[in-house]
């Protein structure tokens, strides 16, 4: 089968940083699905995994943790899907990625592809939707609109609103929880994107947030979802979070971070990694199947919209390098996809 992968972890300028490969087609067992991949998307995790280091792989490593396709075969214990079903999913970082013609994935972390979306539009959504959904509703404990009247709306600050996770987090926070959403963006085009998705207020994360909150007459944030550098924003978050508020972060730190500024306000701090359930095979692993199916219903109803903004082209090493380069520049809005 056709695939794109690597043996060595190199800068994109090196010819062997990503390679076109011909690999054996895998066979599903247990609860695995064999998916004929139709489209993939690229996330910052792809570039972080591919980042230069001395390690050399004895067998080719395939990256890619966002896909949409059609179930080709099912393992002997699979019961959630059948051959011919259209699906979308992010997969497990502990297994080969989806940058290949066929891909094995545990059905418990797979959802029904939204009928309203193309394969590329659907491939843009799983990793970011799972991340934002788990952060808001599992980690931060945000109430859904079905659980409280709209008049009780609280404030959510999203640091980094125009990226993949921020783009769907804005929508989930507005449409499912009725929150007042304050998003950060540093360019006119990224600010306009956040507003179009439903953000109520836009701030610049390159400037002190407390001053901007004060000038805009904003209340302290009940919740903060930090999608950019944790080190750079820890004081910003301490300044604007409400006493007894909650913070959730997704970007690992490069070194020690002083969290003492959060102590006076008794702030709850948590992490979100959407791979946790699949890495540890947690008892609630199938929650990702359930939330992707619920999200599919919301996409089909028009409540949520895809955050795909650009199709790079067909999946091959050259086009995938273009996508990785765009992610590494850090100026992408929404999601980039490739088709197979």
Structure notes:
- With 340 residues, the chain is α/β, with parallel strands linked by helices.
- The chain has two domains: 2-125 and 276-339, Quinone Oxidoreductase, Chain A, domain 1 (Alpha-Beta Complex); 129-271, NAD(P)-binding Rossmann-like Domain (Rossmann fold, 3-Layer(aba) Sandwich), CATH 3.40.50.720.
- It is 29% helix and 29% strand.
- It has ten helices and 16 strands.
- Strands 3, 5, 6, 7, 8, 15 and 16 form a seven-stranded mixed sheet that branches. A six-stranded parallel sheet has the order 11-10-9-12-13-14, sandwiched between helices. The chain has a three-stranded antiparallel sheet with strand order 2-1-4, with helices on one face.
- Helix 10 links the parallel strand 15 and strand 16.
- Helix 3 (126-139) packs across helix 4 (164-175) and helix 3 crosses helix 9 (287-300).
- The chain is globular.
- The model has no long low-confidence stretch (mean pLDDT 96).
